[in-house]
Amino acid sequence: MTAPQNERKLYVLTMRSGTSMSRIIHKVTRANLTHSSIGFDPRGEEFYSFARRKKNRILPAGFVHENIRTGVMGDCTDAPCMLFELTVNAEVWQAVRDRVDELDATVPSPTYDIPGILYSYFHIERENCKSYVCSRFVAETLGKAGAIKLKKAASLYRPLDFLQQEELTCIYQGTMEGLRQAVDEGRL
Questions:
Q1: Fewer CB within 10 Å, N or C, the chain?
Q2: Is cis: bond before 60, omega within 30 of 0?
Q3: Beta bridge partners of 50
Q4: 120 touches 157 (CB < 8 A)
Q5: CB under 8 Å, gap of 24 or more: what pairs does 131-135 form?
Q6: What's the longest Cα–Cα distance across the chain?
Q7: Cα–Cα distance for residue pair 139/159, rounded to 1 Å
């Protein structure tokens, strides 16, 4: 049985990268997953998020293209991660794609919201902010497109909150190296 032609797939990748920011967030929150990204590639290789732009420096940070084989993600072999799949109609998929493309084309691109981490930690909603943390970007983009029903304000989302989204189906849980192997072996 084939899926209807109108159905498309989106992906949400959550992980703990081992970067200095990720280690700080993990130490303070004890969260096993500290980063989230949106992907369109059915093999799960290219993702978009808000994070550091340079591999060895926290700043500058902002909208980034990520790949499971290169950069920070590529260096994370033992990092825990979960890959979620989301089935949406073509219009919702395009709305998410348009938002990602809009942010990608914005010059200068929006920056990383460092105070937003503290706001989220203390459960304080951050309104009218033009900067993003990774989880707010994912939640807001999926929520505004109608891909998921947000359970709270997007600015309060943390990567672990995506585990509670009924619309998302976990298709992989393990390490980043295991994810790369699953992609290479065609298991995803």
A1: N
A2: yes
A3: 63
A4: yes
A5: 132/50, 132/63, 133/50, 134/35, 134/36, 134/37, 134/49, 134/50, 134/51, 134/159, 135/36, 135/159, 135/161, 135/162
A6: 48
A7: 9
Question: Is residue 110 classed as helix, strand or coil in its secondary structure?
Answer: coil
Paired strand residues for 90 = none
pLDDT of 51-65, one tens digit each?
876 666 666 778 999
Whether the upstream peptide bond of residue 108 has omega within 30° of 0, thus cis, is yes
Q: Is the distance from CB of 83 to CB of 44 less than 8 angstroms?
A: yes
HSE (side-chain half, CA atoms, 13 Å) at 49: 25
Structure tokens at 27: 């130490």
Element (H, E) at 83: strand 80-89
Write down the residue that tokens 């999926």 correspond to: 142
Count of C-beta atoms within a 10 Å radius of residue 118: 12
Residue pLDDT, tens place only, 91-124: 999 999 999 999 999 878 788 887 887 888 788 8
Instruction: Look up tokens 């909150």; give the residue.
Output: 161
Rounded Cα distance between 117 and 115, Å, is 5
